[in-house]
Specification:
The complex is a heterodimer. Chain A is globular. In chain A, strands 6-7-8-3-9-10 form a six-stranded mixed beta sheet, with helices on both faces. Chain A has a four-stranded antiparallel beta sheet with strand order 2-1-4-5, with helices on one face. Chain A is an alpha/beta fold. Chain A has a domain at 92-163. Chain A has helices spanning 2-7, 50-57, 80-85, 102-106, 108-112, 117-130, 147-159, 177-194, 205-211, 229-234, 238-259; strands at residues 11-19, 25-34, 39-44, 65-70, 73-74, 87-91, 165-169, 197-202, 214-219, 222-227. By secondary structure, chain B is an all-alpha fold. Chain B has helices at 2-9, 11-45, 47-62, 65-72, 76-79, 82-107, 111-119, 124-154, 167-175, 179-207. Chain B is elongated. The model of chain B has no long low-confidence stretch (mean pLDDT 91). Classes of the chains: A alpha/beta, B mainly alpha. Chain A binds chain B through residues 58, 60, 81-85, 89, 91, 93-99, 108-109, 112, 141, 143, 154, 157-158, 167, and chain B through 110, 112-123, 126, 130-131, 134-135, 209-210.
Chain lengths: 260, 210
């Protein structure tokens, strides 16, 4: 039994479809597994179905066909609130509660889970350190923070109740290049320590290559291919190759301009 | 000059009618808040309710106030007590701004904030009371403010059906062609409306989320 659990995927999509009530198909026949401790990156253009896939995991959306399994059981079974509280969720717009201080934002799930106040306080301090924020930040409001700080608070909030699974929807997408670079680096070192199962949505190949243990390439509601970052760069799949070409072209054209 | 004289001579009656006026406005506003906020939440969360709720409130608003008082007069339990009747009519008028602003306030909460809350596992109730209502509060309050200011004015008409309030002076003044008497009712009512407007406006600003 134990061995079984260890080898079974933490997350599994089985023939998952998702269609809007008006019939528009956003996701068709998705089959995908995510193993414990890996960072799976969903890479694709907007409208490719990556955010939809993410929201099917914590049941912000429900599949119109197929089954999403979390920790070996269909996520449609059981309490949706429990499910969501056991999964950390970070979105691009951060969605910090503007009327809460940083401390209350981070401590929200522990608070509604009924943790004692002292333990919440201790946990918030620990998390602030973990994401590289100063202790004084705790009493600030979101509008008093920079974009990078806000996103750090968003990550800390998602980690608050120590979920084993973390869903991240373009968390660094709205940040400037240098801040993004720094947060990506911190994410990697954090992930090495915490070893969460992460599903990470991005449209940025560089980010996917850097953070992903595997990259799932999506297009028009379908999964095209799943590759390791090394294999992705060598892939002969036309779409993957197109991503790599676009990525290299940017560097090359700048280099050539410098040479001429 | 004469007016000051009138107030000092009749301060007891002025005070009585002012308190009566406040009672009519206060109770009807309270009722409108108690009914209007849940209805606003209902129509914000379930779009099916949006049209019937706001539509009805809109229609009520278009009924001329004197006519509404008249319509309600023959209603059994209500017609016997003019103040009940006036409170009901004022409540009906105050509903629209309260419902509409509750609806607008909740719909205006940043969708990212709501989604983050849902994704983190807040229950519907937690989301409503800890996120949506606090963030919509200043907008809701501005609806209440409109309701109060309108009610203070409308409540003067309640005197026409014998519900009391500062309208008594106004109607008496009209009947006697006595401007002094009209002003004796109109000025305290105006002061009341301005005071309420100022206080609620101040509160609204303080509660506005940053």
């Amino acid at each position: 039994m134990d061995a079984n659990v260890a080898h079974s995927p933490v997350i599994e999509f089985r023939d998952v479809d998702y269609a809007l009530p008006n019939g528009l198909q956003l996701l068709s026949g998705l089959n995908l597994q995510v193993q414990r401790g890996e960072t799976l990156v969903l890479l694709g253009r907007s409208g490719s179905g990556k955010t939809t896939s993410l929201k099917l995991l914590n049941r912000l959306l429900n599949p119109s066909g197929g089954e999403v399994r979390v920790n070996g059981a269909p996520n449609a079974e059981g309490d949706v609130i429990r499910l969501r509280r056991s999964i950390g969720y970070v979105i691009q717009d951060v969605g910090l509660f503007p009327h809460f201080t940083v401390e209350r934002n981070i401590g929200l799930v522990p608070r509604i889970e009924g943790w004692p106040v002292a333990r919440i306080h201790q946990r918030v301090e620990e998390l602030l350190r973990m994401v590289g924020l100063e202790e004084q930040t705790a009493s600030r409001y979101p509008h008093q923070l920079s974009g990078g700080q806000r996103q750090r608070v968003g990550v800390a909030r998602a980690l608050a109740a120590d979920p084993a699974i973390l869903l991240m929807d373009e968390p660094f997408g709205a940040l400037d290049a240098l801040t993004r670079d720094q947060l990506q680096r911190e994410f990697l070192s954090l992930q090495r320590r915490l070893n969460k199962t992460v599903v990470f949505v991005t449209h940025d190949l560089r980010e996917a290559l850097r953070l992903g243990s595997r990259i799932a390439l999506m297009e028009a509601g379908r999964l095209v291919t799943v590759l390791s970052p090394e294999d992705f760069l060598r892939s002969t799949d036309p779409l993957a190759a197109a991503y790599v070409r676009a990525f290299r072209d940017g560097l090359d054209s700048a280099a050539n301009r410098g040479a001429s | 000059m004469n007016l000051i004289h009138f107030f000092s001579q009749n301060h007891e009656q002025v005070l009585d009618l002012t308190l009566e006026h406040l009672w009519l406005v206060g109770v009807s506003t309270l009722l409108a808040v108690l009914i209007g906020i849940p209805l606003g939440i209902l129509s914000a969360h379930w779009p099916v309710w949006n049209k019937p709720v706001l539509g009805t409130a809109n229609i009520i608003q278009t009924i001329p106030s004197l006519a509404l008082f008249g319509f309600l007069l023959p209603v059994p339990w209500l017609g016997d007590h003019a103040d009940r009747l006036a409170i009901l009519a004022l409540t009906l008028y105050a509903l629209l701004p309260v419902i509409r602003n509750t609806y607008t306030g909740i719909r205006g909460v940043d969708p990212a904030v709501v989604e983050a809350g849902r994704g983190m596992g807040l229950t519907g109730r937690q989301l409503l009371f800890q996120v949506e209502l606090p963030l919509a509060l200043s907008v809701i309050l501005s609806g209440v403010r409109v309701a109060v200011v309108v009610s203070v004015g409308l409540a003067t008409i309640a005197a026409a059906i014998g519900a009391g309030g500062l309208g008594e002076f106004i109607f008496r003044g009209l009947a006697m062609v006595n401007n002094q008497l009209i002003l004796a009712g109109a000025i305290p009512a105006a002061v009341m409306a301005l005071t309420a407007d100022f206080c609620l406006g101040w509160l609204e600003k303080r509660l506005r989320p940053r």
